[in-house]
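User: Fold this; tokens only.

Assistant: Input:
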Amino acid sequence: MSDQLALETVSAAPPKLNALPPTRVLPSAPIQANAYALLDNARALTISDLDSLEAKAQAGDPQSETTLALAYHAGTLLKMNDAEALRLLQQAASHGFVAAEEALAIFCQSGFGMPPDKKQAVSWYTKAAEHGSSDAATNLALMYSTGDGIAKDASQAATWFRAAADAGDATAQLNLAALYHRGEGLPQDDTQATFWLSKAAAQGSLPAMLELARWDLSPEHGGNIDDAILWLKKAADLGNATAQTELGDIFVDKKLGRLDYSQAVEWYRKAAEQGQREGQFGLGARYLFGQGVPQNFDEARNWLTRAANLGHPYAQFLLAKLFESGQGGPVDVAAAEKYYNLAANFGIAEAQYRLGLLLAADRGNEVNLVSAYKWLVLADDAVKESAATAQELRKLLAPAQIAQAEHEVDEWRTAHPPRHSDR
């Protein structure tokens, strides 16, 4: 089922966690391969396997019918044909073959070989779950949780997530923790949320590891920095760039009491080399300030440029300063203006102030003077020098220009409501 078979997860906010006893218990897992495993088998088929598989399918073997159906779906050695795949799955499912029921539910939900039919998807997921499929129980819970073609029902979502979680499904465990945190379909209970997050993380769930780390970092939950580091290192060692960057952030934050610039550089570099903009920003900033590495403006420009071009606003601001000052390369006022403008539009007050100064320096350009006044006014709440500079510039502007600039200030504030920094 190609990538469409991948499970989606309901985003789990930093949890809150006492549970009602589950109203559903999955029977013992069937001694059958699930749809995901059979899809892998179908993709691995060789020409020498095909004749035997087709013969077994024609003889009515449900596992062979399901594998052949998934080969038709994936286009493995066969022309892609979801209609034929659907026919074979229906045959196998009619004999109670769980993997076929799972796959049929996904076909109905996604509209493979047929128009999407969410009601039928719920029916087949329910059958598969009642036959012991934790994957089907999880997907069914996700449909109830998100209202995917059916009425949203947090209680049903909790019931099926709990059934799948009890059976060991890490995705269900993660989502059950989220429901406990939010108090959706279950009483709000932080202890239970932590319990299920830990279960999922122990199975290698990266989102669960990240959530546990953030939970441990939050002051309202004790601020257990060392436990947060342990979870982040587990995720980082699995190559997760977000965890690598968040480790770097811990080691550069003096308030957390674990200051270690050399470790920060190590983790930022791993994330940066994966192309993650936050890691690139962290590494570029360390080169800029000489923290954990010798100060190197060339390297700072290199990494900050990468992060800035991926939309990191603080990288844009620092890069603009480098272009304006000529550190790490030639002075480039046009590039400085470009990156200050990007950072200023994100709402970084110092970028707004410096952009205002840059534009105000061109006294012969009336358009730039109006823009300069706008940016200086926008910055004046946060940058104390900005108000005085704006007042001096105001003396050079005609009433109509001042009115235009003030109109642009109002428009900008309307389009950019106050936001929390995601630095």
